[in-house]
Write a structure and sequence with these properties.
The chain is an alpha+beta fold. 36% of the residues lie in helices and 14% in strands. The protein is built from eleven helices and twelve strands. The strands form four sheets. Strands 2-9-6-7 form a four-stranded antiparallel beta sheet. The protein has a four-stranded mixed beta sheet with strand order 4-3-8-5. The longest helix is centred in the middle third of the chain and has 29 residues.
Amino acid sequence: SDVCSSDLIDQKRSSKMNQMQVPKGWKLFTLEDVLKDEDYSIKRGPWGSSIKKEFFVANGYKVYQQYNVIYDNFDYGNYFLDDNKFSELREFEVKAGDFLISCSGTIGKVSIFPNNGRRGIMNQALLKISINSNHVFPKYFLHLLRSELIQNQILVKGSAMKNIVAVKELKKIKFPLPPLETQRKIVQKLDDILGQIEEKKKEILSITEKFDVKKINNNYKNYLLKSAFDGTLTNEKSEAIDGVIVPRGWEVKKLGELCIINPSKSEINHLSEETEVTFVPMRCVDDEIGRAHV
């Protein structure tokens, strides 16, 4: 059955984790090994019925939602509870440095609750993890939780609806843990590389905003090359010369004015061996329409 197949896959994955080879000086830990030694260090949000709209007040203790974690924005939201309701739900309080994971809809997104976050609790769509930072560098743990290694372990397998595994299973999750100094070096390297990737993504987005994205998706190279030679790429004003639209200040030349087409040996004998020549081999040119396949 599907359930049996899923169980077998989980068993194999667990076996692989137990046999995982780690660099010298690293160790395998379970999540339970690095939790804070305090009550509610790992906790799912309260039942939905515990936080109803009629409990909300204009100001008070904030109720954090999935949106806050998915978009890493803890300023968003205006649901608040009074002192009595907060005291009743105190076990679901989130504190600076807590890791919050989305558990409904968009599953597995992870964020760290900030030092300047307003005091409050999480709602039913979140799970919190409080770790002992003497063992684990928080940013290392954040990258780890977002990695495929952990994401594959925290999601329920063989289910039509995605969900986070039960807390008792989460505590058993194993992961590699290097010394603290190595953790910091890994974080520094990851932040540097990921930062560069984000910058490149922004550059690409700023370029694509200038163009018709549908056209680019179909044949982005031809589209971008065309845009380079009609002024679109550099936002230049255009004008028509001999029926050809070109950027203002450009000229229109015939190919024969710029190069020698099928030159004879006598036409190139005067060139020294040091001269750099750009050419298109005839075997690369389509006989029918003259398209170059270079």
